[in-house]
Amino acid sequence: MTADHLREKNIMRADFNKTNELLKEINAALQVSLEEMEEKYLMRESKPEDIQMITELKAMLTERDQVIKKLIEDNKFYQLELVNRETNFNKVFNSSPTVGVINPLTKVSVRCMCMSSSNLTTGVSITHCCVPCNFPQRRVKLPRWLLQIPSARSGLPGTSHSERIVLETASSVWTITKSMTLYRPLCEQAFLCQTL
């Protein structure tokens, strides 16, 4: 009985060892197959749908990059155009203009006599001024209605203060009216001189 038991025990041990070796071989083969499958999965080719989507996305990115680049260039162009227009505008129209206001309610103080009374009948020859106003040397023809004022015919030095103011105010008004087309610098200087 003991000999039979030992024999069966040896047979079972041998079968177990064979089965164990076989399972080890199968396990090694499966391990190799698994590694091959993993490598094949990592190196797999893209699907056609994926390739098409990638191409479309790349095209969209390229188009958007071009649009952004164009917008940046347009922005630079318009900024330069704005600076250019502002510079040209400031050259043509002064950036800090001198604004003059005529107030008719203020008293007129006559300190300067740029107009010579002797020339009122034939025209006024303006040559100099007692105030340094850089008055231009011009000859202005006064209208007929201004020459009919008594102080204009008799001469300024012999007239009264009120008549002088009337004559000079009328002369200034006429010069300012005429200056819209012809005598703008002249009337500005004359008005400044007569109201200083």
Give a structural overview.
- It comes from Ursus americanus (American black bear).
- One of its GO terms (cellular component) is extracellular space.
- With 196 residues, the chain is mostly helical.
- The chain has 2 domains: 14-90; 117-195, no CATH class.
- Helix content is 66%, strand content 3%.
- The protein is built from 5 helices and 2 strands, in the order ααββααα.
- The protein has helices at residues 2-42, 48-92, 144-147, 150-154, 161-195, and strands at 124-126, 138-140.
- Strands 1-2 form a two-stranded antiparallel sheet.
- The longest helix has 45 residues, at 48-92.
- It is rod-shaped, with a radius of gyration of 54 Å.
- The termini are far apart.
- Residues 110-140, 151-159 and 178-196 have low confidence and may be disordered.
Low-confidence stretches: 110-140, 151-159, 178-196
The end-to-end span amounts to: 152 Å
What portion of residues belong to β-strands? under 5%
Number of domains: 2
Shape: rod-shaped
Widest sheet: strand order?
A: 1-2
Secondary structure category: mainly alpha
Average pLDDT across residues?
70
Total number of strands: 2
User: Percent of residues in helical segments?
Assistant: 55-70%
Report the sheet with the most strands, covering strand number, pairing sense and barrel closure: 2 strands, antiparallel
**Counting H and I runs of at least 4 residues, what is the number of helices?**
5
H and E string: HHEEHHH
Roughly how many Å is the radius of gyration? 54 Å
